[in-house]
Amino acid sequence: MRSGWKLVLTFTVLLSSALAAGAQDRQVVVAADPALESSGLMAHLAPRFLLKTRIRVLSVPFENAAGAGGADVLLAPVEALPDAAPALRDEARTYAVRSTHENADAAAATYAARFVDWLTSEIGGNTVAAFAPGGTQIYFPATGPAADASGPAPTGDAVLGEKLSLTFCGRCHVVGPQNRMKGLGSTPSFGVMRTFADWEVRFSTFYLLNPHPSFTQIADVTEPFDEGRPPPIIPLEMTMEHLEAIMAYVTGIDPADLGAPIRHQ
After folding, report:
1. Contacts 24+ apart (CB under 8 A), 87-96
2. What domain of life does the UniProt record list for this protein's source (predicted)?
3. Which tens digits make up the pLDDT trace of 169-198?
């Protein structure tokens, strides 16, 4: 019996390790110019690329054109990358992007190529243009017509997203009139969260924001739960297609009317 239990335990540990490795392998390391990191642009791009491709973005500081540090993609001023494709610009300079991989058949090269293609595409340009901290647009597409600063339109099924929102989120959040009296008083409603300036990031990366990591699993994205820390509630198990549908639904929700700001005499 003991040997049987040991065999089962060993198999479980190996399976968990394999799943965790799979989630980590789907990532691209981007060596970005420090200005793009400090401005918040990389933090803006990462969850949107993940939502579109299921590939994580790990941002590291750009050092040189040789791609030191194991970077898969370089994103820096064109002066440093004269052979790279122009990707975006600000008022002072243009930034270019290219893959560091010569073997196009490698998985890392595939992920790198997808990031480069995405960032230089119309959707990528719209995503860059939508980055406007404090309401001020900072970056623009490097070439071509002006991008839509509202960002790319959601591609998910909004009708399905409403059902999934009620199923997955409705046990804690008020999603809408459908469950108006069923949310927890300590959690904001979807309508209230739509008033947040960063609502899109909050919704698209909710599984990274506490307390969600302790009970949320997204196939091919999140790592398995720590066996020593089981979920405190029934786990929420979903896919990126589910999240895309929820994002499409949330995009169509009107922000809650919270009234005029309080005026102090």
Report:
1. 87/119, 87/120, 87/124, 87/128, 87/142, 88/119, 88/125, 88/128, 88/139, 88/140, 88/141, 88/142, 89/139, 89/140, 89/141, 89/142, 90/138, 90/139, 90/140, 94/142, 95/33, 95/36, 95/142, 96/142
2. Bacteria
3. 999 999 999 998 888 888 999 999 999 888
